[in-house]
Design goal:
3% strand, Fumarate Reductase Cytochrome B subunit, mainly alpha, 8 helices
């Protein structure tokens, strides 16, 4: 039987995040005039991260953090192949996948925040760089360019490798459910709420996040980083 697991707002968030991270990576490496698009993708990421934080509290069943975040013990049990939960409770992110989700969200958040305070001392300056000392801005810049970038690459690479592993070894397509929202599963699974009312609420949250991102972008005299 097919069950709705991923609601439409969460699916759109997933692909928008992937697109923005890709744009940020490409434009950041290109530099020059491409940096304006780097700024814009960074501000868009603020809106997306605000949405995901709120959606992780009030969103549908399988989008809420409390329903999929697991502790180290649960992750270790899952890695050993010892998952004591009945099958109908295993829908959504598995313990290892939940760890990957939290890590990726945390690293992207740190990358965005550090970019707001970064300053390359040539052409590009984050909108909040003028509110901290040169030393503090240099620390944020170092993290943004030297630590954060490799972490992003590593986590994105692991994410893609995990998708490939599940597709080839376990014969599970993880991409299709994130497109359609539905999976084939056993009876007893609680479906995700995916009503137009919930989608409207998601749109309001994204709009609020966009307003916050726009306000932040106006705080500096040079622009984002």
């Amino acid at each position: 039987m097919k069950v709705r697991v991923w609601d439409l707002p969460l699916r759109l968030f997933h692909w928008a995040l992937a697109a923005c991270v890709t744009v940020s990576i490409v434009t950041g490496l290109s530099g020059g005039n491409a940096m304006q698009y780097h700024f814009w993708s960074g501000y868009t990421l603020i809106a997306l991260l605000v949405f995901r934080l709120v959606w992780g509290v009030i969103g549908s069943q399988h989008a809420r953090f409390r329903n999929f975040v697991r502790g180290p013990r649960a992750v270790l049990r899952y890695v050993r192949g010892d998952d004591p939960r009945p099958e109908h409770l295993r829908v959504g992110h598995n313990p290892l996948g939940s760890l990957s989700v939290i890590a990726l969200l945390a690293v992207v958040t740190l990358q965005v925040v550090s970019g707001l305070f970064a300053n390359d001392e040539i052409f590009n300056q984050g909108p909040l760089a003028i509110y901290v000392s040169n030393r503090t801005s240099a620390i944020f810049t170092f993290y943004h360019t030297t630590i954060g970038q490799p972490l992003i690459y590593a986590l994105v690479g692991l994410h893609i490798a995990a998708i490939a592993y599940y597709a080839v070894v376990k014969r599970q397509n993880l991409v299709r459910p994130m497109l359609t929202g539905d999976i084939d599963t056993v009876a007893g699974v609680t479906p995700a709420r995916d009503t137009w009312g919930l989608r409207g609420l998601a749109l309001l949250i994204v709009a609020a996040g966009g307003a916050l991102a726009w306000w932040i972008s106006t705080l500096g005299s040079v622009g984002g980083y």
